[in-house]
Amino acid sequence: MAQEAQSENGSKASPVVFAAVKPWLVVEAPKANDAVQFYKAAFGAEELGSSSIVVSDLTDDASAPVKSPVSGSLFCLETEDVEAAVSKAVAAGAVAEGEVSEGEGACCGGRVGRVKDPYGNVWLICSPSKKCADVAA
């Protein structure tokens, strides 16, 4: 992911390159451990080091990156079996939002199901039918 930067005199500077995006889910304290267990049960999440999503409790600590509840988080997961993935998430405690359908534009198109987890995050579960275009910030 690259972002064009401008120098103070208005000329174009070298692009800023980001090496990674590391999502951070913040849930109402003290539910971070429960959320991790839900993500394992619903989506087969594993605790690895190479690619991560940080899950933490919301705190009043001055150094905390988020100090109030956040809404509007949306994640997209791709799978060949959308219906089974939605069913697994619902069995683990998510709430299905509508029926699985053809979803042009969402998650690169194809079949898409939508669930909300017990912590308020929305997950689009999509088939990988179209190649996603690169997104420049």
What does it look like?
With 137 residues, the protein is of the alpha/beta class. 17% of the residues lie in helices and 23% in strands. The protein is built from two helices and nine strands; from the N terminus they run E-E-E-H-E-E-H-E-E-E-E. Strand 3, helix 1 and strand 4 form a beta-alpha-beta unit. Helix 1 (32-43) runs antiparallel to helix 2. The longest helix is centred in the first third of the chain and has 12 residues, at 32-43. Residues 21-128 form the VOC domain. This is VOC domain-containing protein.
List the helices and strands and how they pair.
Layout: E1 2-3, E2 16-17, E3 24-27, H1 32-43, E4 54-57, E5 74-78, H2 82-92, E6 95-96, E7 101-102, E8 111-116, E9 122-126
Parallel strand pairs: 3-4, 5-9
Antiparallel strand pairs: 1-2, 6-8, 7-8, 8-9
Helix pairs in contact: 1-2
Question: What tags apply to this protein structure?
Answer:
single chain; 137 residues; alpha/beta; two-stranded antiparallel sheet; 2 helices; 17% helix; globular; disordered C terminus; Glyas_Bleomycin-R_OHBP_Dase; At5g48480-like_N; At5g48480-like_C
